[in-house]
Structure formats: structure tokens, C-alpha cells
Amino acid sequence: QVQLVESGGGLVQAGGSLRLSCAASGRTFSSYAMGWFRQAPGKEREFVAAISWNGGIIYYADSVKGRFTISRDNVKNTVYLQIDSLKPEDTAVYYCAADSTASVGSRAGLYDYWGPGTQVTVSS
Length: 124
Hints:
mainly beta
């Protein structure tokens, strides 16, 4: 079992930056692939980024490449999402998720555990 809690969201002006964190409980965190997803009002949840257990494999959605950076610290049991050059269309609830199969995929169905989410709002 893994419990996830996101933090770091907030209200920011367009062009600004945020660093989201996802703290995980459980001693098996380092064996999980981790992902970030987001859901905007009235839209389906969409993949943002994923990282393998050791950080050696990273994937991004095309819409965030060059602006988002995913990373992890297995000592601190935390995965991060650095978001730069924020745009109003980045406004969403951001969720982190853990995949016990370590497959590093973009499909939400691959992930076993989810955090409650953190709100990111970007003003124009």
C-alpha cells in the first residue's frame, strides 16, 4: 500500500512557476513508477509526466514538454513536478499516482494509487 499526498499548488500569474511535490508513505516507494496527471474543469483527466523507479526513464505529454520537469527523490519518498512558464490552460487539479508494475505509462488505468490532488490556478 502506498499513500500519496500532493502539495505546492496555488494561484500564480501566467509566466510564473510552481513546484509540486508528492509525498509517499510506504517502504516500497522506490520500486514504483510515478506519474502526474491533471484534470481541468469539465475535462477528462490527462497524462502530464511519468518517471521510472530510478529516474532513468521519463515521459512527458507533448503539451508540457519543455516547460514541465518531473523528478524524484527516493530517500525522501517524494516525486516533484516543476512547472515553468505557466499558462492559463495549465489550470487544473494535479494528481500524482503510483504504478506498482513500474511500467512508466501514460494511461491512468496503469496506476494503482492516487493522491487527492492539488489545485493549480493560472491567471492571465
